[in-house]
Specification:
This protein is mainly beta. The protein contains three helices and 17 strands. The protein is elongated.
Length: 206
């Protein structure tokens, strides 16, 4: 979903994400609340910082392009900067970090520790251009991303448990269907992937 806010800032929401715009946006502040993942291109306003609040972090910017990933079912929040500069601060302690282009932080919800990292641009920003990117990804990482992207459920059969699938996969898919993706997964795998309605059935190959 693509949104344009009254100040001219644009936001692209990823699947299974929600954005709440504060009722005073543009008058008293530029405050939004995010659950899930979104890519922001913020119109510069030196007098009114743009603020994004997630469950644990507050991200404050004047004008820049960046990505925030803060799904409730993930153990860490990720903020990555494509251009410009942002400030990240914890809502529960005094941790604060300034990020510039090609930097990101991960914030572990459990131990409340921030880690500064370099950005893999395709991995972080690819989704906004309809690119699914996997680099040495585990089965569960692929499963979680595809379930959210295509609104399906992965189910295992024949006593197979998803935790026991130890294969990793690397691949890039742009504007490709779920059928094309699971065909590629099965090609190098010991497992079959069959699409049945809104379910992907995973089982061992004969």
């Amino acid at each position: 979903l693509n949104l344009t806010l009254p100040d001219g800032s644009s936001i692209k929401l990823n699947a299974d994400s929600r954005l709440v715009i504060d009722s005073t946006f543009g008058r008293i502040n530029r405050l939004v609340y995010l659950q899930g993942e979104a890519y922001f291109q913020v119109t510069k306003d030196s007098l009114s910082p743009f603020i994004i609040r997630t469950q644990n972090l507050e991200t404050k910017v004047l004008g820049t392009a960046f990505n925030i990933k803060a799904y409730d079912d993930q153990s860490a929040i990720e903020v990555a900067v494509e251009s410009g500069k942002v400030n990240i601060s914890s809502q529960y302690d005094n941790q604060s970090e300034d990020l510039v282009a090609n930097q990101m932080i991960t914030y572990n919800r459990q131990d409340q520790i921030m880690q500064l990292k370099a950005v893999n641009r395709m991995e972080v920003f690819g989704w906004k251009d309809n690119i699914l990117y996997f680099k040495n990804a585990s089965f569960n990482a692929i499963k979680n991303k595809c379930e959210r992207w295509f609104a399906v459920d992965f189910e295992t059969e024949d006593g197979l448990r998803s935790e026991s699938i130890e294969e990793n996969f690397t691949g890039t898919f742009k504007n490709e269907s779920l059928e094309e993706i699971i065909t590629a997964l099965a090609y190098t795998s010991k497992y079959e992937y069959q699409l049945q309605g809104d379910k992907v059935i995973v089982k061992k190959k004969n």
